[in-house]
Amino acid sequence: MMLIPAIYFWKRAPFIRLLASFIIGIVIQWNCQIAVFVWWSILAISFLAGISFFCLSLSNRYKLGVLNGLSLLISFISIGGLITWHSDIRHSKNWIGHYYKQSDCLVVTVDESLVEKTKSLKANARITHLIENKNIIPVQGKIILYFKKDSLLPPLAYGSQLIFQKSLLEIKNSGNPGGFDYKRYSVFQGITYQVYLKPGDFSVLASTNKKWLHSFLDMTREKVLNILRTNIKGDKELGLAEALLIGYKDDLDKTLVQSYTNTGVVHIIAISGLHLGLIYWLLLLLLKPLQHRKYLKWVRPVIIILGLWVFSLLAGAQPSILRSAVMFTCIVLGENLSRKTSIYNTLALSAFILLCWNPYWLWDVGFQLSYSAVLSIIIFMRPVYNLFYTKNKLLDSFWKLNAVTIAAQILTLPVSIYHFHQFPMHFLLTNFVAVPLSSIIVLGEIFLCIISFVPVAASLAGKALHWLIWFMNNYVERIESLPFSLWGGLQINIPETIFLFLFITGISYWLFEKKKGGLQIGLIALLCFWGLRSFSFWQADRQQKIIVYNVSQHRAIDFIDGRGYIFTGDTDLIKNDFARNFHLKPSRTIQRVDARSTLNNLVIDKNCISFDAKNILLLDNTISLSFPDTKYCIDLLVISKNPKLYISRLNNSFDIKQIVFDGSVPAGKLKYWKKDCDSLHIPYYDVAEKGAFVMNLN
């Protein structure tokens, strides 16, 4: 009989209770921003309650055992809150935000090699000192540096120190509905500011500030990249090779990444548990002779753990692979310390260690997918594998690989739908080829690095790898082109995601344990899930709104009526798949809308639009405006680009209820227009400053 952790984990894996409490503390602190003394007070009270419990008589301890357990859980909640509070760079007394003024000079240390972007060069840096009136103040904080592409730009690398006096810009979100929360993502990494520098805006100091481990990893990374770039030809093939081996993604082709995402194999691109699992398997295979020798009992796990961490560091010490390294380390130690150790307890311990190091990994998609996939494989792999039996070893190996893939999808499905709003229908076809082939490619790349000092052998290995990667890319792209390859436009919220997990848990318990209670839980969860989705569709059917998006240097407006929308804006956003998917698609997904040729109550006449009895006027530098003889009511005026106009003259000819400046308006012109609006008492909205403008019409 199989034990389902959702039922027995309280007894078999007590650390899960502590982990759950710890996570609750993390979530509460981030969302509520509770003062640190409150957490210390709660921890002190719960700790004293736990100590007092042992002063009671044995009978009273038995009666009050639940209260003792409750005090322990509250202690871990407060510990989670405390660690999260201290992990927030904004709470550090030396944080740059407590001291910085626009007139101050800053000394920063470049933390990585410069990465080339479309119009600039980018690098993360640490702020080490602030200079105020000749006073040097040590400060903390990270910053994103953008450098203008210029031949006069001095050479910069990891450890370079710069000094400059230029106003920092606070990192903000685009504010587009459903858009990526870039500000939160940056804060999680300790980054709160950004700045754009031209060659004359800064000076490079003669001294450098390097850490030996970081320098070693950076040097190793560059050597590996040089080996791959020398021996593997083709932009797509080289970009994927770099991502597979060391997680370097700057050369990845964006359309190729989208193809891997749409077919359900994007996980092989990220350095994570898949790659480390391959190294773990290799080490187990190589060290198998040591398994039955008692005097070498501790040599085997030590070598395995050492090998895992060496590979993790050489692969660039990416957060995703460090998480996997900790998880595998806990598994190896758990297996060797005690044969009775629960794998669920081991997983919970590894997650607890990782969240103690960085509680913000809780929001990391890779973290969520890694643990849900491992847990799903542990629970469902054997039952799925037992559904089909064959004596043929080749067919059995084929089915085992697919059983692992199917099992991993069960618990990752709700997480994937929540974050990516899509489901790859042909994931079995792509995983069956891409997973083993990517493993062979990774092994081949390791072999290439080992023999790189022999040019002829390295060249032959590079050609073989080029062909394998080309074949895998071509296979994935062909699968993507098949009919019904992607079920897109899926939108579920957090409560719906929870109900999906409850449904999976209940039905699994019913199937494995033959208990009707599991079926009841599953059906109730499914009913709640269906009810929430039905309500969201009911709301979507009745919506009417106008959305002016915040897209830099572009005009983008959606007119939404029910489940349909019509787009008005720059055609570049329609043709550019990446820009459209990044800026516009998330909003349309959460609104549950599709493109339509016409909408009820929407009439578009060049720059004049009537929508549900609202008059909208669009102005940019391509439109010559004719002024009416009588004052005309404008419910919404959207100004784009750099038209030649005066707000005062517009106000004389139109009764303007609301002005919106979109993301394409130049900052210099915007400043004067805002002053005119203030003097004329006309309400205005700057999407570049406040995010997308949403006007609900019902």
Shape: globular
Q: What is the SS-derived class?
A: alpha+beta
**Main beta sheet:** 9 strands, mixed
- Please tell me the overall pLDDT: 85
Task: Give the number of helices.
Answer: 24
Share in β-strands = 15-25%
Oligomer: single chain
Q: What distance lies between the first and last C-alpha atoms, to the nearest angstrom?
A: 56 Å
List low-confidence stretches: 1-9
Radius of gyration: 29 Å
Fraction of residues in helices? 40-55%
Give the total of beta strands. Answer: 24
How would you summarize the topology of this molecule?
Elements: H1 5-12, H2 15-32, H3 36-53, H4 58-63, H5 65-87, E1 105-110, E2 115-116, E3 120-132, E4 135-138, E5 142-148, E6 160-164, E7 169-170, H6 182-188, E8 191-197, E9 202-208, H7 212-231, H8 235-246, H9 254-262, H10 273-286, H11 299-314, H12 319-337, H13 343-357, H14 365-385, H15 393-420, E10 422-424, H16 427-450, H17 455-480, E11 486-488, H18 494-513, H19 516-541, E12 544-548, E13 556-561, E14 564-569, H20 572-575, H21 577-591, E15 594-595, E16 602-605, E17 608-611, E18 614-619, E19 632-634, E20 636-639, H22 647-653, E21 654-656, E22 659-661, H23 667-680, E23 684-686, H24 687-690, E24 693-696
Helix pairs in contact: 2-5, 2-13, 3-5, 7-8, 8-17, 9-17, 10-11, 10-12, 11-12, 12-13, 14-15, 15-16, 15-18, 16-17, 18-19
Structural write-up:
The protein is α+β, with helices and mostly antiparallel strands and 698 residues long. The strands form five sheets. Strands 1, 2, 3, 4, 5, 6, 7, 8 and 9 form a nine-stranded mixed beta sheet that branches. Helix 2 (15-32) packs across helix 5.
